[in-house]
Design brief:
Distance between the termini: 21 Å
Low-confidence stretches: none
Radius of gyration: 15 Å
Number of helices: 4
Order of helices and strands: EEHEEHHH
Oligomer: single chain
Structural class: alpha+beta
Shape: globular
Number of strands: 4
Length: 160
């Protein structure tokens, strides 16, 4: 069986950043999948499910309400390895083009106060598995250590 594209990236060289994971054509439209890598794989601890779940709720809410991108959001959710998130947008985008969007989303998460959207038994299948304080901490860390200082090394996958 052929390896899928995301398994061909050398995770030993991957650092936190915003990467184009793949581009797909669907009915003559480009769909861009972004790898929002928040922790350094196999070097840093993975994120716990409570903070990942909180960031998923906040990030999806932010993106689906964004005035310029809400109609382009296909998906936002965690990676199974818990080192980051996938963001899928309808359109042909580069990492540099979406960096301001990703920064504003993580600033929203970092600064969020109040009840996490959708964190009720009516709205979520595991509403008690949330950790807003840790989500805010990790959003700030990602902003400070990757997004605010992003260069090509944080925006283009490393060569093997």
């Amino acid at each position: 069986m052929e390896k899928i594209a995301s398994f061909t990236i050398n995770h030993l060289k991957l650092i936190p950043g915003v990467y184009v994971s793949r581009k797909d054509n669907v009915n003559d439209n480009v769909i861009t999948t972004f790898d929002l890598r928040m922790t350094r794989p196999n070097y840093e601890p993975v994120m716990n499910t409570a903070e990942v779940h909180t960031m998923e709720h906040l990030g999806a809410t932010y993106l689906r309400n964004h005035p310029d991108y809400k109609d382009k959001v296909v998906y936002f959710g965690p990676m199974g390895c818990r080192t980051g998130f996938y963001m899928i947008l309808a359109g042909d985008y580069s990492s540099k083009q979406v960096l301001p969007l990703v920064i504003s989303m993580y600033e929203f998460i970092r600064d969020f106060e109040g009840e996490v959207p959708g964190a009720t038994p009516h709205d979520c299948g595991n509403y008690q598995d949330m950790n807003l304080n840790m989500a805010k901490y990790l959003a700030k860390k990602y902003l400070d250590e990757a997004l605010y200082i992003a260069t090509d090394k944080n925006l283009i996958y490393p060569e093997d």
